[in-house]
Amino acid sequence: MANTHHQLIILGGGPAGLTAGLYAARDRLQVMLVEKGVEGGQVLVTDWIDNYPGFPEGLSGFDLIEKMAAQAKRFELETKNANVVKVELTEAKKKLIFESGEELTCQALIICTGARPNKLGIPGEQEFTGKGVSFCATCDGPFFRDQEILVVGGGDTAIQEADFLTKFASKVTVIHRRDELRATKVLQEKAFANERIEFIWNSNVVAIEGEKEVERVRIRDNNGEEREIAASGVFILIGTIPNSEILPLEQLGADESGFVITDDEMRTKVDGVMAAGDIRSKRVRQVINAAGEGAVAAIAAEHYLYDWD
Amino acid sequence: MAGENVKHLTDAEFDEYVLKGDVPSLVDFWAPWCGPCKAIGPVIEELADEYAGKVQITKMNVDDNPTTPGKYSIRAIPTLILFKGGEIIDQVTGAVGKTQLVAMLNKAL
């Protein structure tokens, strides 16, 4: 029978989880990484990463994850592909309950469940996802060659991807609810200089409509005036929400958006439970700090397991 | 060899192979520029070995084959569609894990 108890379980296989796994496996902890999909997380949808040090030419999100996974495997990190539906924390042990009904327990737990794209929650959004509504420009951009499309949002991701999408689309209209962008200045400058990008300010998308695929959206400006815009694609890039549904947030401690609060050592309010990466309540969400937090969390787990503190 | 059980489909082969095939088919619509598509590649290869003779595991490059993705309104990849007797019985978009794909494939058995 397979071992159902581990010294350490890492929940989630993005950059934070893979780095925590690398550290823990290299330090010969009895560790297992649990991932419900494929390793990588949100990095997989990142077309190109130019700000992860050690790769002077840059590399794709996929290539970076492949290297991280290979490095963890070199130290024999054990991984399991399964969907956790509930995390139960008691003083004695931490328990993961899987969709299959299976249960695993551990002494220490590192939560790296990450975040996912936020949604607008408007009519048509769900229905047309994959049929014109997209949350990933690099995945779906090439389907919109020579077409007119929309980007919703005003942050770094929205503005960077609006610029990227002009490689394919004949025109990209950015719809933003305020009268200025939140994106980094360098990204703003690039977008304002791009002749294929137009902006509609102070407006919200209220519905996405069409027959079989997206054909138009309805937008409402801050004065309450509504109008229709024809578009075959709508890219919704309005930030992220935490993958925290399975977590006991009250016990762990979380901010009002559901991101887990930790101290500088990545420790939550529950002894022996750490959190790292995009699931943490924090300001900067980059691959580099996710990886760094994974390392810190793994070392905190070791301190906890061996009572070094 | 890994991947030898995966059939790489073209638009021209689709009807004959998938819609008129004797056994159910899973079609993985993908493209070389898509990170999540590449990430699930090894899973698709494993499934092709495990379901050999039961479900045809196929891949279609959407850059080289625009007709079939157009017919099924595919505007996001990876999209995986499971066909049985010429009909769609399930479909999923995104880099889903092996466990979820196994559950999907078992619906066709």
Structure notes:
The complex is a heterodimer of chains A (309) and B (109). With 309 residues, chain A is α/β, with parallel strands linked by helices. Chain A is 23% helix and 27% strand. Chain A contains seven helices and 17 strands. In chain A, the strands form four sheets. In chain A, strands 1, 2, 3, 4, 5, 6 and 17 form a seven-stranded mixed beta sheet that branches. A five-stranded parallel beta sheet of chain A has the order 8-15-9-10-11. Chain A has a three-stranded antiparallel beta sheet with strand order 12-13-14, with no helix packed on it. In chain A, helix 4 (156-165) runs parallel beside helix 5 (185-193). Chain A is elongated, with a radius of gyration of 21 Å. The model of chain A has no long low-confidence stretch (mean pLDDT 94). Chain B starts with 6 loop residues before the first strand and ends with a helix. By secondary structure, chain B is α/β, with parallel strands linked by helices. Chain B has four helices and five strands, in the order βαβαβαββα. In chain B, strands 1-3-2-4-5 form a five-stranded mixed beta sheet, with helices on both faces. The model of chain B has no long low-confidence stretch (mean pLDDT 92). The chains are: A alpha/beta (309), B alpha/beta (109). At the A-B interface, helix 2 and helix 3 of A face helix 2 and helix 4 of B.
Write a brief caption for the model.
Chain A is α/β, with parallel strands linked by helices and 309 residues long. Chain A has helices spanning 15-26, 61-74, 137-140, 156-165, 185-193, 249-252, 287-305, and strands at 5-11, 31-35, 78-81, 84-89, 94-98, 103-111, 115-117, 133-134, 148-152, 171-175, 197-200, 203-209, 216-221, 226-230, 233-236, 240-242, 273-275.
